Amino acid sequence: MTDKRIRYIEEGFFRVLMFFSTTGIVLTLLLILFSILMKGLPSLSWEMLSQTPKGGFYYGKEGGILNAIIGSLYLSLGSTILAFVIGLPVALFMNIHLIRYKRLVNAVRFFLDLLWGVPSIVYGAFGFSVMIYFGIKASLIAGIVTVTVFILPIMIRAIDEALKTVPRGLLESTLSLGATRSETSYRVYFRQSFSGIVTALLLSFGRAIGDAASVLFTTGYTDHIPTSLNQPTATLPLSIFFQLSSPIQEVQNRAYASAVVLTIIILIISLSVRYFEKRFHKHKIKF
Amino acid sequence: MAGIQVTRKLRSKLHGSWMIISFVMVMLVPVFLSIGLYLKSRPLFVDQGIFEVLFSSSWKPMAGKFGLLPFIVSSLWVTLMSLIIAIPVCLLTAIHLTQYAKRWVLRIMHPVIDILAGIPSVIFGVWGILVIVPFVANKLGPLLGKQTSGFTIISGGLVLAVMIIPFILNILIEVFRGLPDELSEAALSLGASKWQSIKYVLMRKAFPGIVSAIGLGLSRAFGETIAVLMVVGNVTRIPTGFFQPGYPLPALIANNYGEMLSIPRYDAALMFAAFVLFVIVTLFNFLSRLAIANIEKHS
Fold first, then answer.
1. Domain interval for residue A7
2. Alpha-carbon gap: A176 to the closest alpha carbon of chain B (Å)
3. Can you name the residues that pair with A203 across neighbouring β-strands?
4. Contact with chain B for residue A132, Cβ under 8 A
5. Averaged in consecutive runs of 10 residues, what is the pLDDT profile of chain B (299 residues)?
6. Residue B16 sits in which domain range?
7. A67 and A9 housed in the same domain
8. What ipTM describes this predicted complex?
9. Any domain includes B65
10. Interface contact A240-B126, CB threshold 8 A
11. Which of A87, A90, A125 sits opposite B274 (nearest CB)?
12. B193 part of a folded domain
């Protein structure tokens, strides 16, 4: 009897712990968002969003972080597009041309998952040493290339997961109707997994805009909005990082405000991912 | 008619070659990465010896001494700290969500996990400075009788734990979902309570999956840069306790890039740090992913 009671107490004890850890995770997320918004919102102003740093900006004088916002958008858009141009064919190749070689495809997936795990600082360091070797200065294009390499595995695997769900019967029937494999790729597979592909793009964009370690040495930092690919470019994560290391309170407050901007961008991306996962099933053929 | 046929074929050919070119490019990335890092760091262990670099604790770039031990040990401390916090939380939550919770709880938790996983590293760093560092300095430190500035291993570990929780949790949920229902049904029909069936049957069956999830979390934690760098203190000394500042490998690379070109061998030392990071992280990833692939094959 007592033995049984101990068991019930044990189960009850662990259920309480489970409840606390689950709510703990939700509360932590809320705490993160709440503390950033509370600290950053008071310093956020239209001036911060619409101006580049003026003289004395880093001593707390006027100016804004428009250079970092635009720079981050350029960088993330550029690398997302580049990664898409390379990643989509690779994912299609794996799911259409290599579909008969299941073990090979699984090995490639395994390999891409490994690449995904490589820390971004390693890509950054590697990119930087390649730049030194070829005598390239920190610039928008160097940053775009480094970030592209960094987000490629995520892009390919996310598109791959979407393509995986397309029934194989579709491939066989389109090929038997005389379509070439590239037509099958773009007219059938691409449309069938459109929502998944949009999700992949958004996920990669989110990774690209949020990462600081890979752009730290490759993109550089500047107060101006870049007008060509060869110029150094400011990015939001680095602008937060640099402003926060300043001893001046004014500048630190701006770092918190910049953190709000980045958080809101990321939240918008997260919400759009949810939206796209649910929508765009119109063309989908189910077997 | 024939013209259309030719363009169709040509388009297919062109597309096919671009596919193969992209494919080969992606496959070559890690090859270039490892060869490049190796060649760049080679000058260092040609004149110091690889063990000297790995296990010496004297880091004096100006004197040409590059011992990475303080940084490796710091990385281990921070990672260990984050795992101590993240593992129980993830296990309990994963069991709760897959065995006990109602469906609406899962519907809430999925976006929560996704949003948490998507928050950029630098935002976690800002949060760490805003919340965790003062908490450690003013509450946790005095509570345990320690005087600290808050920029310590334990702060780094706490921030890291929150960062890797969504990552480990996602895999654990998959692991527990992948277990066959018959297992717990058989245990329940033999008179076991729900908790007993989880404790003695499911946990045992899920054990390899749990270990691999932890391995993946570990490698994620090991390579994390900016967030840890912002809260961990960055003092070059081998830490001996959780309430001391540390200086993990990624932070070393990130902090010293500016000056690396002016001191001889400095760039080689930092490249070697990146190489060590790459090898350790990839090794842990490899083993964990291999274990997960094996589990999937058998179920």
1. 2-43
2. 16
3. none
4. yes
5. 75 87 91 90 80 79 82 93 95 93 89 92 95 91 83 93 95 90 86 85 90 93 91 86 88 81 80 91 93 79
6. 2-55
7. no
8. 0.91
9. no
10. yes
11. A125
12. yes
